[in-house]
């Protein structure tokens, strides 16, 4: 069957159900595992009543952003990587260092949190996929 859409075969970007907002809002950050593997895991932050999703591994050298401190600088929320203290804007993923961290859209629907991503995301690790 011919597919008119190249992207679909790579993995289409769709809304991925993460879980109930009432539960996910209890922690400042949750690690969401990606079915694509470690490098594609995503952080789900809950800060000041809002959810944000961002690649979990720092664009600098792969530090764990879920373990970073979050600061509010005049209304701009930033996470600081625990490894070398680079800042990343939770909303845009931009860093004052010039690096860019990938961020994802988050929506709330019927009390559930959804993140727009190319791969399924899960709070539990995926069963270990075959190593190449
Ligand atoms: S790995 Fe995050 S700042 Fe270096």
From TrEMBL:
Residues 15-115 form the Rieske domain. It comes from the Eukaryota. Pfam families: Rieske_4. PROSITE patterns: RIESKE (PS51296). One of its GO terms (molecular function) is 2 iron, 2 sulfur cluster binding. Keywords: 2Fe-2S, Iron, Iron-sulfur, Metal-binding. Transmembrane segments: none annotated. This is Rieske domain-containing protein. It comes from Coregonus suidteri.
């Amino acid at each position: 069957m011919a597919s008119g859409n190249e992207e679909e075969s790579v993995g289409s970007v769709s809304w991925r159900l993460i879980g109930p907002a009432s539960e996910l809002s209890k922690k400042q950050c949750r690690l969401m595992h990606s079915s694509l593997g470690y490098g594609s895991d995503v952080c789900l932050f809950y800060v000041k009543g809002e959810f944000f999703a961002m690649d979990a591994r720092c664009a600098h050298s792969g530090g764990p952003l879920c373990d970073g401190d979050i600061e509010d600088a005049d209304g701009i929320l930033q996470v600081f990587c625990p490894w070398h203290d680079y800042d990343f804007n939770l909303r845009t993923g931009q860093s004052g260092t010039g690096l860019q961290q990938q961020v994802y859209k988050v929506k709330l629907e019927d009390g559930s949190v959804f993140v727009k991503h190319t791969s399924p995301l899960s709070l539990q690790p995926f069963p270990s996929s075959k190593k190449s």
